Amino acid sequence: MPFLNLQTTQAQTDKPKWFGLTGPISEDFPEEPDLVLTRKLTETLKAFNIYDTQLELQRREKALKRLESLYKEWLTEMCVRMNVPEIVTDNVGGKIFPLGSYHLGIHLKGSDIDVLCVGPGFLERTDFFTSFFEKLKAQEEVKDIRVVEAFVPVIKLTYDGIEVTDLKRSVPENINLLHDDVAKDMALSCVRSLDGYRAAEEILQHVPNTPTFRLTLGAIKLWAKQRNIYSSMLGFLGGISWAVLVARICQVYPNATTSTMVFKFFKVYSMKWPIPIRLRIDRCHLMPIITPVFPQQNTSVTVSASTFTILQQEIRRGHAISEEIQQKQANWSKLLEKPDFCDKYQYVLSFLKLCRHGETWPS
Question: What pTM, to 2 d.p., does this model score?
Answer without folding.
Answer: 0.85
